[in-house]
């Protein structure tokens, strides 16, 4: 599956409120992704959400390199790198990371970086 191709896009009309709440906890959306870097655990969210609307209103397609994140503005392009092997993918963040919020993961791409 090819990486997402970074390009300049306008912020999405949906999914970019400054704050939002999930199960009683408030999360803050960054005004932009400039300089953002995070080391943590990723988990892919694949088939279960395929065909459903994302936080920015697009339909989730598990065959595209997209991702969910709790605080990056929508859309944002991000590089996700496996700490095990150094391989990476570029994803387009277009959803809020409810699975990541529950598990404490940093990001949820549609596919994990190559093994």
Automatic annotation (TrEMBL):
Protein source organism: Vreelandella olivaria
Record's protein name: RlpA-like protein double-psi beta-barrel domain-containing protein
Domain RlpA-like protein double-psi beta-barrel intervals: 39-99
Highest taxon of source: Bacteria
PANTHER family in the record: ENDOLYTIC PEPTIDOGLYCAN TRANSGLYCOSYLASE RLPA
One protein family per Pfam: DPBB_1
Residue ranges of the TM segments: none
InterPro entries: RlpA-like_DPBB, RlpA-like_sf, RplA
Family of the protein in this entry: Belongs to the RlpA family.
Region (Disordered): 1-20
Residue ranges with Basic and acidic residues bias: 1-10
């Amino acid at each position: 599956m090819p990486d997402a191709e970074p390009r300049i896009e306008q912020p999405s009309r949906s999914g970019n409120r400054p704050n939002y709440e999930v199960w009683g906890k408030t999360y803050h959306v960054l005004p932009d992704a400039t300089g953002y870097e995070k080391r943590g655990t990723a988990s892919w969210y694949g088939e279960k959400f395929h065909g459903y609307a994302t936080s920015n209103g697009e339909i989730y397609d598990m065959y595209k390199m997209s991702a969910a994140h709790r605080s990056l503005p929508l859309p944002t392009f991000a590089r996700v790198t496996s700490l095990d092997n150094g391989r990476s993918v570029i994803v387009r963040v277009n959803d809020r990371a409810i699975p990541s919020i529950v598990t404490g993961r940093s990001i949820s791409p549609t596919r994990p970086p190559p093994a």
